[in-house]
Hints:
Helix content: 25-40%
Order of helices and strands: HHEHEEEHHHEEEEEHEHEHEEHEEEEH
Strand content: 15-25%
Number of strands: 17
Strand order of the largest sheet: 11-14-10-15-16-17
Low-confidence stretches: 363-369
CATH class of the largest domain: Alpha Beta
Radius of gyration: 24 Å
Largest sheet: 6 strands, parallel
Structural class: alpha/beta
Number of domains: 4
Amino acid sequence: MKPLNELLEESAAFHGHLCPGQILGVRMAMTGCRLAGIDDPKSSKNLIVYVEIDRCATDAIQSVTGCKLGKRTMKHLDYGKMAATFCNLEKGTAVRIHARDDSRDLATAFATPGGTKKEAQSQAYMVLPDDQLFTITPVNLQPSQEDLPGHPLSRVTCDECGEGVSDRREVHLEGRALCRSCANGAYYLSEGTMARPETPAAPPVVAIVGYSNSGKTRVAASLVKILSRQGYRVAAIKHCPHGHDSGPRDSDSRRLYDEGAIRVIASSPDKVTIQERVSHDASLATLASLVHEDADLVVAEGFKSSGAPKVLVLDDLSEPGPLRNVIATVNGDGGPWGCPRYGFDDLESLAGLISREFLAHLHRERTKIPA
C-alpha cells in the first residue's frame, strides 16, 4: 500500500480537489484493505467494496482500491452513511468501517486562528488514530453469484415494457417477469406524461419473514407493541398465502360479502374494516401504498420475495433459502447476511435497531404510552 500523502495526491487528482471527505475516504480504504487482508488492492481480484454514500469519500475509496461500478467490484447502497464494507472474496473476510460523527468534535482542537472548519477537519483526519475516526466492525458477507464480477448470469425480457433485465434483477409478480421500474415505479416520467401531484412519502416497511411456526407473528406483534408504546404510529400487514377468514360468519358484514358484494366496509367509532374481492395476490408495495400517510412504519409479516428490508426468524430445522436485504435475524446466528442477531427475549433491542435505521428522521415530540 502506498503512503497516505501519495494516495491523497492521487485521490485529489481523480476527484478534482482535496477535502475532509476525501481524506476520510482514503483513510477508510487504507484501513479497510489492511483489515480485510488486501495488500495491493488495485492488482487484487478478490476485493469487493460496498459503499453507503455517494459523496467525496466514495471517489477516494475508488481511487485507492481501483474498485469500480462498471467492473462490478464496487456496490453502491444508498444509505446516506459515511461507511463502506471491504470484502476479501478469497479469504471470506469482511470489515465494515463507519466514520464516527464525533470525530468532527475532535477536529476543533486542530483549529487555527483565522482558519476554517474544513481546514481543521482536514488536519485532524490526517493524524487522528483509526479508533477515533472510525467504528470498525468485522461482518459476515457472502455476495450472491449474480453480484460477482463476470459475465451476466441471466437475461430476461420484461413482460411489460419489453426491455432486457440482467443478473436476476427482475421481479416475478402474478406470473409475470417485470423490471423493477414496471413492478415498483420508475424514477422518471416519460416525456409528455403529466407529473403526478406530490404525495406524502410512504412510511418505511420492514418485513418479518421465516418458515411457518418459526415465530414470525410473535416477533411482528412484539415490534408493533414496543414501538407503539414508544409513541410511534405503526401499521401492520400480514400475508396469508393460504387464505384467511374475513370475519365471523354470523356478522352482518360477512353476510353482505358472502352474498356477492365486491367490497364491504364496516365502520364503527373506533375502527373501519374493509373486505374486498381480488383476482390475485397483491404485492407488498401495493398494500403498503394503502396505508395512511400518518403511519410512521409498516411492520409486514411474510412477503419474503419482496424488496423490503427483512428480519429473518429462524428455527432449528429449516435452512432459509436465498434472501435479499436481511437486516437482522432472530433465534439464530447472523448467517451469511452479516447482520445483527437477536433472541426472542431481546426484541426490545431489535425494536431499537429498527427505530435507529428507519425512524430517526422523526423529530416531532412523541408521547410514550405507559407499559
